[in-house]
């Protein structure tokens, strides 16, 4: 079937329905593990982030992310409600007819994009904690890894909008007073379930241990915790990346959506989002290589 013969398309996957949020979050969590496990195999190199070395339009990483987004945009990736480009002004027009997605989120959701903050956090604070200092000459591979990690982070953090919608629909009367009062702090409190977050952090650390260690088939010896070598420190994933980064930023994007459900200003929520990213940047300092 040629693209020209397709008059209309409808998303029947149900992947963006509120009932599928739990499964979708699990899939995105695994995608993040696999993305970040690539990075410890590389070393930092100045070339990918140096402007004008590879292209006059920016650094090698910017080139990789921009061109990847332009290519994926041609098949409609960034028309999906759960996709957010880092360079929206450079996207190509889709070759395929628009697809009809279920109307799950408030219309303002399309305007909520915190990728600039995610980009800064990733390169200035998170990446230096994951890779060795030096230059192994593989700047192309590093740029590819960065692109994969950035897109995985963006997708997971922005999925907070779907989580917020699910929570709001479950108890709208609980959230409406804070929304009308433009009380960003109260919205953050309402979006926080400490017992659930503690359980998530324990699960994340356990998953990071499982995915981050080398398993030898036939090796029956039992290794203790101290002798196990990990590609990436489980506590770095659970406490810094997740607790101080993804969770607060996730709630930041969620709060921005809720604040606009009745057309209110989002500045208080956006400020909380920036502060959450700043908390991640500070917290990363306590984990030594």
Automatic annotation (TrEMBL):
GO molecular function per UniProt: chorismate mutase activity
NCBIfam families cross-referenced by the UniProt entry: CM_pl-yst
Catalytic activity annotation: chorismate = prephenate
Known pathway: Metabolic intermediate biosynthesis; prephenate biosynthesis; prephenate from chorismate: step 1/1
Keywords assigned: Amino-acid biosynthesis, Aromatic amino acid biosynthesis, Isomerase
SUPFAM superfamilies documented for this protein: Chorismate mutase II
Alphabetized InterPro entries for the sequence: Chorismate_II_sf, Chorismate_mutase_AroQ_euk, CM_AroQ_sf_eucaryotic, CM_II_prokaryot
One GO CC term, this protein: cytoplasm
Domain Chorismate mutase: 143-182
Protein name: chorismate mutase
Pfam families in the cross-refs: CM_2
């Amino acid at each position: 079937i040629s693209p020209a013969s397709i008059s209309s398309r409808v998303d029947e996957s149900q992947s963006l329905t509120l009932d599928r949020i739990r499964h979708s979050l699990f899939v995105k969590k695994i995608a993040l593990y696999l993305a970040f496990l690539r990075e410890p195999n590389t070393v930092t190199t100045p070339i990918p982030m140096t402007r004008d070395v590879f292209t006059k339009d920016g650094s090698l990483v910017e080139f990789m992310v921009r061109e990847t987004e332009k290519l994926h945009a041609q098949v409609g990736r960034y028309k999906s409600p759960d996709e957010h480009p880092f360079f929206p002004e450079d996207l190509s027009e889709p070759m395929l007819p628009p697809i009809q997605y279920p109307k799950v989120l408030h219309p303002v959701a399309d305007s909520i994009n915190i990728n600039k903050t995610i980009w800064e956090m990733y390169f200035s604070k998170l990446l230096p904690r994951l890779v060795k200092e030096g230059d192994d000459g593989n700047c192309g591979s590093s740029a590819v890894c960065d692109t994969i990690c950035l897109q995985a982070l963006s997708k997971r953090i922005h999925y907070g909008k779907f989580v917020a919608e699910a929570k709001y629909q479950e108890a709208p009367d609980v959230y409406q007073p804070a929304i009308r009062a433009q009380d960003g702090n109260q919205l953050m409190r309402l979006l926080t379930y400490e017992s659930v977050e503690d359980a998530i952090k324990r699960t994340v650390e356990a998953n990071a241990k499982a995915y981050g260690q080398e398993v030898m088939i036939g090796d029956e010896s039992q290794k203790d915790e101290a002798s196990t070598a990990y590609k990436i420190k489980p506590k770095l994933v659970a406490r810094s990346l997740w607790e101080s980064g993804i969770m607060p930023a996730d709630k930041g994007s969620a709060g921005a959506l809720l604040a606009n459900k009745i057309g209110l200003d989002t500045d208080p929520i956006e400020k909380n989002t920036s502060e959450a990213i700043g908390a991640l940047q500070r917290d990363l300092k306590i984990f030594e290589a």
